[in-house]
Design goal:
The chain is an alpha+beta fold. Among the domains are: about 110 residues, no CATH class; about 375 residues, Beta-galactosidase, Chain A, domain 5 (Distorted Sandwich). The protein has a 20-stranded antiparallel β-sheet that branches. Strand 24 and strand 25 form a beta hairpin. The longest helix has 23 residues. The radius of gyration is 29 Å and the shape is globular. The structure holds 2-acetamido-2-deoxy-beta-D-glucopyranose (NAG) (7 copies). The site of one 2-acetamido-2-deoxy-beta-D-glucopyranose has 8 residues, from helix 1. InterPro entries: PcRGLX/YetA-like, PcRGLX/YetA_2nd, PcRGLX/YetA_3rd, PcRGLX_1st.
Length: about 900
């Protein structure tokens, strides 16, 4: 089989010797060893040819390990592996993962070694899936309204029941309380299906899919909407259930308003005295609110120190015979608290209140700034449940309800969108301003830079993913434990491979190196300090400008208004960045080379945002994303340059193949259909060009269109996804046919056959005499990174294709005379020279041309145009406060996000590809 597969790829030189090898790789905790290890998943890259995927076993020095392959090199060797480690009481500072097995020369006998000492039990029946980790048992029905019907603690107590989703929605937004004509709907989850991962040794993944459907208490009825996918990750020896909750918005922005989106669990409390029932709510910086449903502290009469201490600590109070009888005989006069509510309606403050029961006044409990987002309800003897939302305050408006704590069954509701907030309003922010023709739309673009078109400013098909943790307890845990779990919820521990090792494998690009590998000149030191400056600048801007919110968290802004000392949040195409010119790749590559935790967290939030909110998952735009704008989904340019999975890839593999990101990556294959349904250049194409979209002849730009789907094909091939052979064949076909365009990549746009992957000359040049169409945008959306990864993956790819790409890299920044000599005409004025210096560096290294290294650094350091940063820029911020701004901010009016992204990425790549400037150039 191996021989056959390899022969198909034209690899006749495969070695036939047998080499059993063993490779050990160290993985470290991103933020140091966590206090609590509830189990974790991570990924490891492997050099090509090192370990045959199906003859390699993985083991570790500590903990129970489950392993799988997330990507393959074309020779069948492992490219990336995924690993899950079970929960453990002792948390080592690092782990060593060892791969043992044959090299690329032999066939394998087993797909995967069965893990020793399996401690997860899975029961998959017609009706439900039951998973027992040894510390928690959860039941997931396959139909009905419940996501999780029951959660049992380690000792078998039922501590959670009826886990379900709640959606409140309405068909309009009342102005000043006038609710005329507004209908309100109450919906709950309706399950389509639930499935469990095949392998469940160290971890088990249960995926539940469904939609929200009106429930019996709804005043209005409406059709089902808001489909969801909720994944539950359960680890051996862990009482935590990590939950990844995704919704796709499938409504109309003008008639479907979400007014509450939550997850609710009932918590059995029967048999527990009211004074032994506890409510705990995470506050600020590890703080915990300690409450009992019936408080016996602070009373006129003292029940005794032991009683008070136990209640405060959450342990069972001593027998009532030991209490001061002046208290124990008067419990009926002490109010009991049924309901608690925390609301975080802004990133700056939350309130908490409680009441004895519905119909009575709420009592304010002092609130605070930023809540930890976790609530616990339970009792000293019946046990209880805690539920927490990651980034609770960053994803405002959010809230937490503890209800019916005085009854036999209480509940906890975690609101991902708080019903106390105004309804979520996804309507367009303007009425179209009369832009009813392409001519008017293009004229408006001239002033606000917004590319408007009616019907394209739709949220239909965008998605959002939230991360929730559920913890089960046999008895009320200590406040310290809940505090540690709040930290765990907000910064789930991550294991990562060391930068040196990742770099050596060449499994994720050959264009980055570690700072210490490229140090040695003062110029390199300056660039390093600038990269650090830019990362810190964006981290600070996120905080100072409050780039937070249900849909917004994870994005940054695009352009700056120096007069108002304000990012252009309200100016057409300058507002949300939507990954324009790849800041994502800057941050991720910066993480890869430094291993810095803060950079990982920044880039991780961006992955969760861009892949979900800036991209479409349903409808005609599926697989495409939206250009930068005031609303993430508002602009009419729907392109794969925004949704390209190259922005998600590093996270995907490092996370051991995050299943949700895996889905998103797979969806981008559908951009092929998107190209047919949405003609990206409909407004700007010369009207003399007749073009009717046809799947067999799509008029595409190689960079802003094809490269994104090319990145998807490569991922599909690497992952051996369901369409991998088709994806591989299309890439190979593209590599065969693209260089046949007379001017190769300089042709810019040509006809793409999405059924085969082959290219033909553009309609403007049917005879292939050679066309020049060089756009500054073509190669600034991950093209170099995608093509480099393709060439590293499959060096056997057509050499003319590589040459055509290297020619483009060479000529983009070449002199007009050189361009003219080669193509008969020059390219006109080329902008984004600094960003394109990385193309020059790429061809310099691929063709071992040191003169080009000098040219690359010259382009990088002496661009002097709008979208660049130069050594003579201030490289500092200016503080504005007082009446000139809303609140004090640090301003760098010389930075645009385009420039920051290009400087960051080009700086990293030049250092890696051609070495620091001092070494390769006499003068710049
Ligand atoms: C091992 O992998 C090779 C190459 O992918 C494949 O051809 C072969 O069928 C596999 N063998 C087994 C036993 O899975
Ligand atoms: C197989 O592995 C050997 C040793 O690791 C390597 O030299 C060779 O290039 C590999 N062959 C292929 C096809 O990857
Ligand atoms: C696997 O389990 C068996 C039986 O419990 C035990 O004897 C053996 O040492 C275990 N092996 C490893 C590698 O943990
Ligand atoms: C679950 O049901 C949905 C809706 O019918 C369907 O699209 C999806 O493929 C199903 N998933 C599985 C794993 O069966
Ligand atoms: C409807 O409301 C009643 C009373 O509040 C409640 O007991 C019942 O669980 C609700 N039904 C649904 C489907 O939520
Ligand atoms: C409550 O907890 C504190 C701190 O752990 C401890 O010192 C104290 O003895 C506890 N009180 C009771 C009654 O358990
Ligand atoms: C003490 O507790 C017992 C059972 O737990 C109860 O029957 C009794 O009424 C309580 N005594 C007082 C004085 O509340």
């Amino acid at each position: 089989m191996m021989e056959v597969a390899v022969a198909l790829l034209g690899l006749s030189h495969l070695a036939t010797h047998v080499t059993a090898v063993s490779t050990s790789v160290k993985v470290n905790w991103l933020e140091g060893a966590p206090k609590i290890n509830t189990g974790t998943t991570f990924g490891i890259p492997w050099a090509r040819g090192q370990h045959l995927a199906n003859d390699t076993t993985f083991s570790t020095d500590s903990g129970e390990l489950q392993s799988w392959v997330t990507a393959y090199w074309p020779d069948g060797s492992v490219k990336w592996s995924g690993h899950a480690l079970a929960g453990s009481e002792v948390v080592p500072d690092a782990y060593t993962i060892t791969a043992t097995g044959k090299g690329n020369a032999t066939l394998a006998r087993r797909r995967r070694q069965a893990a020793n000492g399996t401690s997860i039990q899975v029961e998959d029946s017609e009706q439900s899936i039951i998973v027992d980790t040894g510390k928690v048992t959860a039941t997931f029905p396959k139909s009905g309204n419940l996501l999780v019907s029951e959660i049992k603690s380690a000792s078998g107590k039922t501590v959670g029941r009826n886990g379900r989703l709640i959606l409140n929605s309405q068909n309009g937004i009342p102005e000043y309380g006038d609710t005329t004509g507004v209908e309100y709907y109450k919906l709950t989850s309706k399950i389509y299906n639930a499935t469990v991962s095949d392998d469940s040794t160290a971890r088990s993944v249960v995926t539940v899919q469904g939609i929200h459907s009106t429930d019996a208490n709804s005043t209005g009825t409406r059709k089902d909407w808001l489909p969801f996918t909720v994944r539950f990750y359960l680890y051996a020896n862990s009482d935590a259930i990590r939950t990844i909750h995704t919704i796709v918005f499938d409504g109309e922005s003008k008639s479907d308003f979400i007014s509450g989106l939550g997850i609710r669990f009932d918590v059995p409390l029967a048999g527990e005295e009211l004074f032994d029932r506890h409510v705990r709510i995470a506050g600020v910086d590890g703080g915990i609110l300690h409450e009992s449903v019936q408080g016996v502290t602070g009373l006129r009469r003292d029940p005794g120190a032991a009683v008070r201490g136990a209640q405060y600590n959450g342990t069972k109070t001593p027998a009532n015979s030991t209490w001061d009888s002046r208290v124990s005989t008067r419990l009926q006069w002490i109010p009991t608290w049924s309901d608690y509510r925390l609301t975080q309606l802004s990133p700056d403050g939350f309130n908490i209140k409680k009441r004895t029961q519905a119909g009575q006044s709420w009592l304010k409990i002092p609130g605070g700034t930023r809540a930890g987002g976790l609530a616990y309800l339970g009792g000293a003897s019946v046990g209880g449940l805690a539920v927490g939302l990651r980034d609770f305050w960053k994803k405002y408006p959010t809230s937490l309800d503890v209800s019916d704590a005085t009854k036999d069954e209480g509940s906890i509701t975690l609101w991902l969108y708080s019903p106390s907030a105004e309804p979520m309003d996804l309507r367009p922010y303007h009425d179209g301003l009369g832009e009813d023709t392409y001519a008017k739309q293009l004229d408006a673009l001239e002033i606000t830079y917004e590319d408007y078109e009616d019907g394209y400013n739709t949220p239909y098909g965008i998605a959002r993913t939230n991360e929730v943790f559920i913890y089960a307890f046999d008895s009320t845990p200590s406040a310290d434990t809940l505090s540690a779990l709040t930290t765990h919820t907000n910064e789930p521990p991550v294991l990562v491979v060391e930068p040196e090792y990742i770099e050596k494998t060449r499994a994720i690009g050959s264009y980055w190196k570690l700072p210490e590998q490229t140090a040695g000149s003062s110029e390199a030191g300056t660039i390093e300090s600038h990269l650090d400056f830019l990362v810190k600048f964006y981290q600070d801007q996120i905080e100072q400008r409050r780039w937070y919110g249900f849909w917004d968290h994870g994005d940054i802004m695009h352009g700056y208004d120096t007069d108002r000392h304000q990012w252009k949040y309200d100016v057409g195409g300058y507002a949300w960045d939507n990954s324009e010119l790849s800041p994502d790749l800057f941050f991720w590559n910066y993480f890869l080379r430094t291993g810095r935790a803060d950079v990982y967290r920044l880039a991780e939030a961006q992955v969760r945002h861009g892949g979900e909110v800036d991209s479409y998952h349903l409808g005609n735009f599926t697989g495409l994303g939206t250009r930068h704008g005031v609303q993430h989904w508002g602009d009419s340019a729907k392109q794969v340059r925004i949704s390209t999975p190259v922005y998600r890839k590093i996270y995907y593999y490092l996370s051991g193949g995050d299943e949700r990101i895996g889905d998103i990556i797979h969806e981008t294959l559908q951009a092929e259909k998107g190209f047919y349904l949405v003609d990206a250049r409909r407004k700007v194409r010369d009207p003399s060009v007749i073009y009717k979209p046809d799947p067999k002849a799509l008029y595409l730009n190689f960079g802003t269109d094809w490269a994104g789907v090319g990145a998807s094909y490569l991922l599909e091939w690497e992952r051996r996804g369901p369409r991998w052979e088709e994806a591989r064949s299309k890439l190979i076909q593209t590599a065969e046919t693209f260089p046949k365009l007379k001017f190769g990549f300089v042709t810019g746009e040509a006809l793409y056959d999405s059924t085969t992957g082959s290219w033909a000359p553009p309609p403007t040049d049917p005879n292939n005499n050679g066309t020049i169409n060089v756009s500054h945008l073509s190669s600034v959306f991950g093209v170099l990174e995608t093509l480099d990864q393709l060439i590293e993956h499959f060096p056997e790819i057509s050499q003319p294709f590589i040459d055509a790409w290297l020619d483009y890299c060479y000529y983009y920044g070449a002199t007009k005379a050189e361009q003219k000599a080669r193509y008969g005409k020059d390219f006109g004025s080329a902008s984004l020279r600094q960003g394109h210096s990385r193309l020059t560096a790429y061809v310099a290294t691929r063709r071992s041309n040191s003169t080009l290294a000098t040219r690359a650094w010259n382009e990088f350091l002496n661009d002097n145009s709008a979208d660049e940063l130069s050594p003579t820029d201030p490289w500092n911020t200016v503080r504005w406060n007082g009446s000139s701004v809303l609140a004090a901010i640090d301003e760098a009016d010389w930075i645009t996000t385009n420039a920051a992204a290009l400087y960051g990425l080009a700086g990293i790549e030049l250092l890696a590809l051609v070495g620091p400037p001092g070494e390769n150039a006499e003068s710049y």
